[in-house]
Design goal:
The complex is a heterodimer of chains A (about 90) and B (about 375). Chain A is α+β, with helices and mostly antiparallel strands. A two-stranded antiparallel ribbon of chain A has the order 3-4. In chain A, helix 1 crosses helix 2. The longest helix of chain A has 17 residues. Chain A is flat and about 40 Å long. In chain B, strands 10-9-8-7-6-5-4-11-12 form a 9-stranded mixed beta sheet. A 3-stranded antiparallel beta sheet of chain B has the order 1-2-3. Chain B starts with a strand and ends with a helix. The chains are: A alpha+beta (about 90), B alpha/beta (about 375). Chains A and B meet through helix 1, strand 1, strand 2, helix 2 and strand 3 of A and strand 1, strand 3, helix 1, strand 4 and helix 3 of B. Strand 3 of chain A pairs parallel with strand 1 of chain B.
Chain lengths: ~90, ~375
């Protein structure tokens, strides 16, 4: 199995586009009406894109801000994203 | 790529392709990613949202009848340093996409600077505007946005039926201007009983003007739209039933499978997909269709800095956010037994709270309607 195929097997969710607009969370739906061949091609293209993007930035996952908190404590502790240009193996 | 590890694997935001993907641990390892502690330590509570709506101003002179925020010309406008601190906070939480909204964001002279600041923090900024007053000079400041959506409910009559005035020509000029400048532009189309009959023509027209995507939005009873008039403006039962066939027709007409044009639906329209039994939950989940993610994968930050589950909901404390998530995780019947439930999550709570006065099944969902008819008989 190729690396792209292993990535494709691990794909749980593929959200095309940027998703949000100012009011709602948006989802591309035309892919639902596409043929299985087209759907498979989209997943393959995304797997290849995951495999080939070299720059990797890791960001923390933190709970949502509380009411009235513009800058939660997490933002003030100096922790920043880890970045590497080493690429993926 | 921007990676956020979760107990189940990782969210990955691609930078060269406009996509957000979720990889399980095996898939992430295949991509050369290692979640380390995130994968080995016990999972905690809810993770941060992946998308946040950031209101950058409460000012708007358009006066749309159904404005969900009740934005006004003299609305509150946070100073730039306040918004930069909010962007810092969102970046620290691991948010991926920040949707700039308002009010009317383009009234801010520093809008372009804010978009650049979001990029510098690793966030993907997108923008929604009415297009009113969007000059070439203002367009030139928007190049840091990944996408700009213009509110466009149709030509003339259709637009006016939603917003109470005819701003269609200004919106059309904005779409053209943005496309000409090389900005990726989409349209937001609010679906009401009055605009729905024009939908296919609206999208045809928007695409001809340069739009590359149409985002369909359900009309919601929030802000100035939270009146009894909502009941006359929401989609009719027949229109809800025609929703999926209409989507299919649009996708076919615009050859969406070739990728040149896409159609998106908002979270509140997902319950309407239950009217088509051929749409399987696993396919919706695989292609990242999000239903009510309010207070979970989605959050909103208002002009006053308070967080809300979504742009249409009032500010919420932790207990209220937990209540929103709890309903989505364990909704009442008929949602509980619905195959789309893992995606839909019970439908729009803003609608159910207004129509039924409680967090309950979305009363306009075809499946819920059928369930209630059966129960009544």
């Amino acid at each position: 199995m190729t690396r792209e195929e292993r990535i494709a097997r691990g794909l749980r969710v593929v959200r095309l586009g940027h998703g949000a607009n100012c009011s709602s969370i948006g989802s591309v739906v035309d892919t639902l009406f596409a043929s299985a061949v087209v759907g498979g091609a989209i997943l393959a293209a995304i797997s290849a894109a995951v495999a080939h993007e070299k720059r990797v930035v890791v960001v923390p996952a933190r709970p949502a801000a509380k009411e009235g908190e513009a800058v939660p404590a997490a933002a003030a502790d100096g922790e920043r994203a880890k970045e590497t240009d080493e690429g993926t193996p | 790529m921007i990676v956020r590890y979760e107990s189940w694997g990782a969210w990955v935001k691609l930078e060269e392709t406009a996509a957000l993907v979720a990889l399980d641990q095996d898939g992430a390892r295949a991509a050369g990613l290692d979640g380390e502690d995130a994968w080995s330590l016990p999972g905690g509570g809810p993770s941060a949202p992946v998308e946040v709506h950031l209101a950058v101003t409460g000012k708007c002179a358009a006066g749309c009848e159904g404005c969900y925020l009740d934005a006004r010309p003299d609305g509150e406008e946070p100073p730039q340093e306040t918004l930069l601190a909010r962007l810092d906070a969102l970046a620290a939480q691991g948010v991926f996409t920040v949707a700039f909204g308002g009010g009317e964001p383009i009234t801010r002279d520093d809008l372009g600077e804010l978009a650049v600041a979001a990029r510098a923090r690793g966030l993907t900024p997108v923008l929604t505007t009415s297009g009113l007053g969007l000059s070439d000079a203002r367009v030139a400041r928007l190049d840091a946005f990944a996408q700009v959506n213009v509110s466009y409910d149709g030509a003339g009559e259709a637009y006016a039926s939603v917003r109470g005035f005819d701003g269609a020509r200004a919106a059309e000029a904005a779409i053209e201007r943005l496309a000409r400048a090389g900005v990726t532009v989409g349209v937001n189309v609010v679906l009401t009983r009055q605009s729905f009959p024009h939908l296919e023509e609206t999208i045809r027209r928007a695409r001809a003007l340069g739009a590359r995507e149409a985002q369909l939005l359900r009309y919601k009873p929030a802000g100035r739209a939270a009146t009894l008039d909502y009941l006359a403006r929401r989609l009719s039962v027949a229109q809800v039933d025609a929703f999926v066939p209409t989507l299919r027709a649009i996708a076919a007409e615009h050859a969406c499978d070739e990728g040149a044009f896409h159609v998106r639906v908002d979270c509140a329209l997902v319950p309407f997909l239950s009217g088509d039994a051929s749409l399987a939950a696993d396919a919706l989940a695989r292609f990242g269709v999000f239903g009510c993610e309010a207070g979970d994968r989605l959050a909103a930050m208002r002009v006053d800095g308070k967080s809300a589950p979504c742009s249409f909901a009032p500010p919420a404390d932790d207990a209220e956010l937990a209540r929103w998530r709890a309903y989505a995780a364990a909704p009442d019947e008929p949602c509980a037994s619905c195959t789309l439930r893992p995606v839909c999550k019970g439908g729009c709570k803003v609608v159910s709270s207004f129509v039924d006065e409680r967090h309950g099944p979305d009363p306009e969902c075809p499946r819920v309607r059928a369930h209630r008819r059966a129960s009544a008989s």
